[in-house]
Specification:
This protein is of the alpha+beta class. The strands form 2 sheets. A 4-stranded antiparallel beta sheet has the order 3-4-7-6. Strand 6 and strand 7 form a beta hairpin. The longest helix is centred in the N-terminal third of the chain and has 21 residues.
């Protein structure tokens, strides 16, 4: 079996059953653009550490890929050959285990940007006339939700009485709609196809407390949304949950479909929170243009994940319990919270010095004038 044919086998028999859709998409791109053209012609039993290491070195020298991207390519090779070796026994050894990426002299900087209060106020002020952007950013900032969790929220996830928000699903984009983008947008429907997916890990299924500020804001937004529904009337787009069969796993999954309010579909309605005034839903594509405005017009570095990073960092900065923060973010371990999401801010560094000064303020430090060797 060639490595090219084996990769198709591995995707069909392992990845489609065990890997999230977004990861599958990235795997398919790497396989198509990198692995099949360069390594696909080798028989599976011909691949050895020498061939794979030379391939990785070639990518490093000629393509100048980032460390993160190169690690992703090698991770895919290792994962595919691990399955071939230890699960289906097509080979006796995994040669990729002994392969490493070359050393990067320039340390990749942390892409995260922790917003100051002033920066966040500027962002909110810029989008105050666009409610579905304004309130989604506000929600992300006050909860630390992942982007797929935020835009997968429905109104039944918000309990205004108990002041809680429940994360029990996320939203997944599948680009199966082949209609031209311009045509689809002018018709008012989503360009992409959206599906409900499971959360990233078991701990990501969670109910968190939310404060009065966000509760009040979401109440106002819900009222605005009802007014928009009345304004658009029969043309307002409503969303429904349609049960479909995944062609790879042959398991049921929920697809989001929309229809004008004048049409009654015999399907459960999905009351998505962050939709355009006319009801159009763009899922995680919703803030795409907003980020261009923030980065180039407002000159503020911004990714959606920065809201999550800021939320976690400010909580730790204010002395919140790390276990509570980890649970709030839906992390599988406390170390994830420490190592990935919590950054050291200027305030943390200053407080660290102040605490040491406070500890040592009773220390008797002799005056150098009294030392014998200076007399």
């Amino acid at each position: 079996m060639s490595y090219e044919d084996y990769l198709d086998y591995w995707m069909t028999n392992y990845c489609y059953f065990n890997v999230k859709y977004a990861t599958i998409s990235s795997y398919l791109n790497i396989i198509k653009n990198h692995l099949k053209p360069e390594l696909g012609m080798y028989k599976l039993t011909q691949l050895d550490s020498y061939i794979i290491q030379n391939y990785i070195n070639k990518l490093y020298k000629e393509k100048h890929y980032s460390k993160h991207y190169l690690k992703g390519i090698l991770k895919l090779i290792k994962g595919s050959l691990k399955y071939a070796c230890y699960t289906v026994n097509f080979i006796n050894d995994n040669p990729a285990e002994r392969v490493h990426i070359p050393k990067y002299d320039v340390v990749t900087g942390d892409p995260a940007h922790i917003f100051s209060q002033e920066e966040f106020e500027i962002i909110l002020d810029r989008f105050k006339e666009i409610p579905y952007i304004y309130y989604s950013f506000l929600t992300a900032y006050y909860t630390g939700l992942r982007v797929s969790e935020c835009y997968g929220l429905t109104w039944d996830n918000i309990d205004f009485e108990k002041k809680t928000l429940t994360v029990n699903k996320n939203i997944i984009k599948k680009n199966q709609n082949k209609l031209p983008k311009k045509y689809v947008i002018t018709k008012g429907h989503s360009v992409e196809e959206w599906y409900y997916g499971t959360c990233k890990n078991p701990q990501s299924n969670r109910t968190i407390a939310i404060g009065d500020t966000l509760i009040k804001a979401l109440k106002e937004y819900k009222k605005e949304q009802e007014e928009y529904k009345k304004f658009y009337g029969d043309t307002y787009l409503k969303h429904y949950e349609k049960e479909v069969i995944n062609p790879f796993t042959e398991r049921k999954e929920i697809k989001i479909v929309d229809a004008p309010a004048e049409l009654e579909l015999n399907l459960p309605e999905s009351k998505l929170i962050f939709v355009k005034p006319n009801g159009q839903y763009r899922g995680t594509e919703t803030p795409r243009h907003a980020f261009k405005v923030i980065n180039y017009e407002l000159k503020i570095p911004c990714r959606f994940h920065d809201f999550r990073d800021t939320h976690a960092t400010r909580l730790i900065e204010q002395g919140a319990d790390i276990k509570a923060v980890s649970k709030r973010l839906g992390h599988s371990s406390i170390m994830t919270t420490y190592n990935i999401y919590v950054r050291v801010t200027d305030k943390m560094e200053t407080e660290t010095v102040d605490k040491f000064e406070e500890y040592t303020n009773t220390l008797a430090i002799p005056d150098t004038k009294e030392l014998p060797y200076l007399n």
